[in-house]
Structure formats: C-alpha cells, structure tokens
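TOKENISE THE FOLD
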Amino acid sequence: MEKNISRVNGIDLTVLEETIGAIRKDPALGACRFRARNRWLGATRNCSTISGFHGAGREIAHREPFELQADEPGVLAGEDRAANPVEHLLNALAGCITTSMVAHAAVRGIAIDELESELEGDIDLRGFLGLDPTVPKGYTAIRVKFRVKTAPENLELLKELAAFSPVYNTLVQGAKVDIDIEAR
C-alpha cells in the first residue's frame, strides 16, 4: 500500500506526524544528544565536525560528516577565512527559528511562500578581551527581523511559532555548560 504523503512548506507531514506519534507513545524517544568535535587548526582557526547524534532511542549517523570552519577577522588576529563563532551563533539562531516556524506552520496548515531573515547582535569587545570586568563577554542584544510571504493573518502566529526554536530557547533561558580540561 502506497503512503499518501502530504507536504506543506516542503515539510513531509507524514514523517513528522509519525515522529510526533512515536514520541507521544514513548516520551523517552524525544531525548536527543547532539555532538560536535572541534580541532584547532592554528592561530584563530578551528574546525568542528558533526557526524551524528543520538535520537529516537538510537545512534543516527548523518549521510556524511559536516565540517564547520571558524576563524576571526584580521582585527582580532585572525585570517578571516571563515565566519567567527559568534557569527555561527547568529546562523544557528536564524536556521533554528526558520525551521521551527516553517515546520510548526506546516502542521497547522499555514502556507509560507517565502521567508528570509536578517540578524544583528551587539558585543562589546572590552569584555572578551578582558579589558573591563564589568562588560559582558558575549552578546548583550540580538535582533532578528523576518520577512515572510504568507497570508497577513498568519504573521502574529508565526511570531509565536518562532518560540519553539531550541536555539532561541537556549539563548533566552540559558543552559548549563560544563567545561572539563584534561592533559593529552
């Protein structure tokens, strides 16, 4: 018997509904553990490799490993050969909010024809450089502006759906981060 696959916003609702149903039946399947391995390449350059994660009660390998390069601009002694880590954070936020909005809109039958965003964040380098202990070391504000082509009555709901983003929630609620350093 052939499955009837319905798509909204490019999202395969059959797959998404099967995943939701499985997690409702067995909530433990919702627990995921994502991983990245990072290697210093010299100066301010480094590379993270992402090859798989634990989800749905098992290890899941990506089709191929993903490499994410990071560097700093020349003003911070880098070679400017890749986005810097705080730019990667903006990318992660944009990607996660976009995915959350599109997928949650699809489940609700809300069609989105076009969606783009611009992000901007404020960091005072005096904190990062250790010049002023009263200045925060990270972003103090991030602004996200979306432009979307959809029915006008959907705009407020789409803003609410953005709040489902795990990256957004990690930023606004914080996450415990443990750092362990050991000799090699």
Observations:
- The mean pLDDT is 94.
- Residues 97 and 165 are 5 Å apart (CA to CA).
- The longest helix spans residues 85-107.
